[in-house]
Amino acid sequence: MLRPRVRRTVLVLCAAVLAAVSACAEPEPDLELQVPGRVDGALGVAGTPSPSSTAEASCSTQPVAGGYDVATLNRAMQGISLPDWRAGDVGATAPLSDGRLLWVFGDTLRAKGAQPGIVANSMLVSSGTCFTPVAGSSGAPVLDLQRTGQACWPTSVLARKAMGGDSVSVICSRVQQDHHGLLDFTYLGASLAEIRVPVGGRPVVEHMTTLTPDNHDPRAVNWGAAQVVDGDWLYVYGSQQAPGQVAKSALVARVRLEQMRSFPAWQFYDGRQWQEDPGWARPVLSASPGVSQAFSVHRIDGRFVLVSKRGGEFGATIGVWTAASPVGPWTLASETPFAYDEHNGFVRYQPLAHPEIRLRSGNLLVSLSRNPTTFTNLLTDPRRGRPVFVEVPHP
């Protein structure tokens, strides 16, 4: 089931919060998401992929001169018709050196007849507004932990130019899917997928690494909430649940790019300097008001820009913070009202920035995972469970 990246116990306990946090939201903008009641490709309706296996016959592989508008991007996302991808949340992106974009999704709904019908993650590659799927092995998710009962939920992705193409790192939350229903799971730790993408070619997962050991402590740091490169260092952000808080605090680690799969080589920021012991890591953004479990950090125009729900998954605004260095100090640059609960059967969560997709308006493109509150509504029309694009002020 498609879901926000929080513990299900928190979702139940915080249901009463939703009405309060959405009271400040502006009316829902017209995202051109009105769709008919029946759609080819839902689990209940057999779909037929287009001959080109891209999003739609009318898509364009060429970028739009002068930049896109949000409505065009939402139409492209709503127009995807692929047998292995009918709906998915997260939608983190990494620009590739050949001009394409790699998209990484979490829980993914497939077409009728696919086995399994839902997988823990998926990937698409786009050129312009055309999308092509990246298939897993024998119906498995693309990022396969090969551990019974465990799943890899992607939280961040980063691409770096390499010989013959790109080297991509995806960090995911490793979760245990428990036996008490779809809503029952336990966060265990972080895993790293290293992916090679040849120029113009298909992404190939070359290595899966367990970064942190299994840890059932709900206060454990969720490393991999975001990634950004500065010089020879990869900066990896973590989120941590504080006692009595709904939102998370943000922490920072760093590692040499060539050592990223070796967690003992990581260093952790204690607020003043770097430490070898992860226990010394201290928040660079506090849990009050706090950030989401996963967010995005990019270097834009010489500054580091962090985008998250302000106040955690259930927050009423998209926050944009800026800093001169990857560790801060972070300054809140803008807030844009977008509540978690739309009060129309949909929820929105985990905003992620996409600065590589230029908007004609000059604003910053942000996607939010959007899902119906009932699984039946998702099966009726999978397009209801796809990310939606909005724009926020450029920092």
UniProtKB/TrEMBL annotation:
A Pfam family: DUF4185
This protein's record includes keyword S-adenosyl-L-methionine: no
Gene3D superfamilies documented for this protein: Glycosyl hydrolase domain, family 43 (2.115.10.20)
Signal peptide as annotated in the record: 1-25
Listed InterPro entries: DUF4185 (IPR025442), Glyco_hydro_beta-prop_sf (IPR023296)
Superkingdom assignment: Bacteria
Keyword annotations from UniProtKB, A to Z: Signal
Keyword Signal: yes
Coiled-coil regions listed: none
Residue ranges of every copy of the DUF4185 domain listed in the record: 225-365
The protein's name in its UniProt record: DUF4185 domain-containing protein
Record organism: Luteipulveratus halotolerans
Lineage, highest ranks first: Bacteria, Bacillati, Actinomycetota, Actinomycetes, Micrococcales
